[in-house]
Each structure stands twice: as C-alpha cells, then as structure tokens.
C-alpha cells in the first residue's frame, strides 16, 4: 500500500512537473523590428521617421500620440494582452518606464529600419545591430535587478516578436541606387538579407532567446503609397512588389525550418501575415472595412510621418472603416484582426 502510494505520488509529481515545464508560460514579450512593431523608440532619437504627434494615437487608450504609426495600438500590444500581460508594450528608450516594467514586455524596434545597415541609414534610425546592443543592455539591467537565475528564466521563456524587412525593399533597394548597383537582381538582394536575418537569429539565440515569432513582408505592393504611384495599372496593387514579398517570405520560411533543426531548443514560428493582409485588402467589406485603397490620414495616398497633418481636412472620421491608417501603415482595427489571426494560427502553442 505504501509503495503504491509513493508510486502515485511520483507519477503525479512527474505530470505536474512536465506540464509546467512544457507549457512554460510566457512572462514577457520582447520586440525587434521596424514601424510595424515600434511602440515609440523613435520619439527619443533625432530622426524624421516619427509619429509622436496628432493625429497619430487619436484612438489610443488615452487618445495621445505614442510614436506608434497607428491611430491606436499595434500588434505587439494586442499579442501582449492576449498572453495575459499588459495591454501595451513599452519602448525601451522611453524614460517613463524602468526595468521592473520592462521585465514583462519591452520593445527595441525602430520605425524605418531593416535587416540591412544601409536601410537604417536612410532616415537615421536604429539599425538592427543596435537593437541587439539595447537588448544586451536590457539583459544586464534585468540580471542586476532580478538576479541571474530569474533573469535567465525571463529571457528563455519570453516570446520574441520580430517584424522587419519591408523598408529594405521599399525605402532602400527600390529607392536608392547603391544596392541595385551592387546586386545583379532583387533575388540576390533577398539572399543577402536572408544571410543577415540568419546572423541576427543566431545571435539572439546565443543570447538566450528561444521562442521566436518572425513576420516578414506584407503584400507591400498594396500599400496605399505604392498604389498611388502605380498610375499605369489604375492604382491597383504593384504585383511586382507582391511577387518579391512572396519570394522573400518563402526564403525566410526555409530559414525558419533550418534554424529549428540546427539550434537545440529553438522554437521559431514563421508567423506569415501576407495571406491575411491580402485577404483584407482584396475583400475589405468581409472584415467590416469600407476602404482598402487609401489610408485614413489626409488624402490617404502619400501621407505618413510629418505629412500626416493634424490640420488636414481630408482625414477620415472613423479609422475603423479603413484598412490603412496612413499611406504605409495599417489601422488599429487591421492590426487587431491580424494579431488575432497570428495568435490563433501560430502563437497559441506558446500560450
Ligand atoms: C519602477 O517604477 C515603479 C513606479 O512606476 C516603482 O514602483 C518601482 O519601484 C520602480 N522600480 C525600479 C527598479 O526602479
Ligand atoms: C552593420 O554595422 C555594424 C556596426 O558598424 C557592423 O558591426 C556590421 O558588421 C554591419 N553589418 C554588415 C552586414 O555590414
């Protein structure tokens, strides 16, 4: 009888231990990338790529501009909330927050950046390598505050959101001559970016990151700014840019498979948002939208950043009717739909 009891006890012990270690609740959301996920770092650096003024943020929790390129919240915020953490992820450079705040969520992203150093140079924003330097600095503060063991646990169990790449093509390769001169074609530039991506993921793995979600390119030919200049196609989506996005995302997906095989304990998901975004753009009314061709801000065709003028009489009344908030960025409602989709399809395994 006693033996039996001990056995039961032992089994239960194993089950409890196993379920705790395998479900490994996410204690923190840690974000790297560009304006698709920047929650306000650019407010604290001298760059033109900023949005810390009205009408940005007009539907945010307190109606204030935050540096998010949106009328409200963006995907890291929605994902953080879905994981039972805060409804917003603070920007690392924001002095209003300290290390105890950042322990449950921190954003290193910078609007305008890319995998390629030459991309972040365009608007003097934070290059990806520097986002990693901030992450190292964060680790030092986390260890000083919580001790080695607790800090390592947070870093290991955190969910890392990485969303980047659009600017490498639209702000850099297709806008400036250098990279097009250097590479024979866009495929070669994609391969160059994939090498940079691999180096980045291996580096954060070495620094302790394990659960990673990467979102690469949207159907970037359907961004209002790109449609506005697509005069010959009656302002339809620029199919060439969408093809590049699909091709690059395919290469990134293969990188994800490779890294999951190569790196022990690595759990990386390819949280591809291309399909859902294309669905929304091509069938806006199925998602409750009235307009997918132009952004809400101003005329919606070119305005973003400083051009998104608080005085513009053209700015829409209800951003929830628009897929895009400005000429380059989704509205809060689109971000929410995309976040819910990504959570259900890719991130639920970490919940
Ligand atoms: C962080 O700020 C909060 C108040 O916002 C304060 O209660 C807490 O003690 C601070 N923590 C550190 C480590 O400074
Ligand atoms: C990007 O710049 C950083 C800092 O100067 C440098 O360490 C890194 O090697 C550069 N990356 C590439 C691919 O040139």
TrEMBL record:
<feature type="signal peptide">
    <location>
        <begin position="1"/>
        <end position="24"/>
    </location>
</feature>
<dbReference type="InterPro" id="IPR036514">
    <property type="entry name" value="SGNH_hydro_sf"/>
</dbReference>
<dbReference type="InterPro" id="IPR050592">
    <property type="entry name" value="GDSL_lipolytic_enzyme"/>
</dbReference>
<dbReference type="GO" id="GO:0016788">
    <property type="term" value="F:hydrolase activity, acting on ester bonds"/>
</dbReference>
<dbReference type="InterPro" id="IPR001087">
    <property type="entry name" value="GDSL"/>
</dbReference>
<dbReference type="Pfam" id="PF00657">
    <property type="entry name" value="Lipase_GDSL"/>
</dbReference>
<dbReference type="InterPro" id="IPR035669">
    <property type="entry name" value="SGNH_plant_lipase-like"/>
</dbReference>
<protein>
    <recommendedName>
        <fullName>GDSL esterase/lipase</fullName>
    </recommendedName>
</protein>
<keyword id="KW-0732">Signal</keyword>
<comment type="similarity">
    <text>Belongs to the 'GDSL' lipolytic enzyme family.</text>
</comment>
């Amino acid at each position: 009888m006693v033996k039996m009891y001990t056995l039961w006890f032992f089994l239960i012990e194993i089950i409890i231990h196993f379920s705790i270690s395998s479900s490994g609740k996410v204690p923190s959301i840690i974000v790297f990338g560009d304006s698709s996920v920047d929650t306000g770092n650019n407010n604290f650096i001298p760059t033109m790529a900023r949005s810390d003024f009205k009408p940005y943020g007009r539907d945010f929790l307190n109606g204030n501009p935050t540096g998010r390129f949106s009328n409200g919240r963006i995907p890291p915020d929605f994902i953080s909330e879905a994981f039972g953490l805060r409804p917003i992820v603070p920007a690392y450079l924001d002095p209003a927050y300290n290390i105890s705040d950042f322990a449950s969520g921190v954003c290193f992203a910078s609007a305008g950046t890319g995998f390629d150093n030459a991309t972040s140079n365009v608007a003097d924003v934070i290059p990806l390598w520097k986002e990693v330097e901030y992450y190292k600095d964060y680790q030092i503060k986390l260890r000083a505050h919580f001790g080695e063991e607790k800090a390592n646990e947070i870093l290991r169990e955190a969910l890392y959101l990485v969303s980047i790449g659009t600017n490498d093509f639209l702000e850099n390769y297709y806008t400036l001559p250098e990279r097009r001169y250097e590479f024979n074609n866009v495929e070669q530039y994609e391969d160059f970016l994939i090498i940079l991506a691999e180096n980045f993921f291996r580096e954060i793995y070495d620094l302790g990151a394990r659960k990673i979600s990467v979102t690469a390119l949207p159907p970037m030919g359907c961004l209002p700014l790109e449609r506005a200049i697509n005069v010959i196609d009656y302002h339809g989506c620029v199919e060439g840019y969408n093809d590049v996005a699909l091709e690059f995302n395919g290469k990134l997906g293969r990188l994800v498979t490779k890294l999951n095989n190569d790196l022990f304990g690595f759990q990386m998901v390819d949280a591809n948002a291309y399909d859902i975004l294309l669905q929304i753009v091509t069938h806006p009314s199925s998602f409750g939208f009235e307009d997918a061709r132009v952004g809400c801000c101003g005329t919606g065709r070119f305005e973003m950043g400083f051009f998104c003028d608080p005085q513009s009489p053209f700015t829409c009344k209800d951003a929830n009717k628009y897929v895009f908030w400005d000429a380059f960025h989704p509205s809060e409602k689109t971000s929410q739909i995309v976040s819910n989709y990504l959570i259900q399809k890719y991130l639920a395994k970490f919940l």
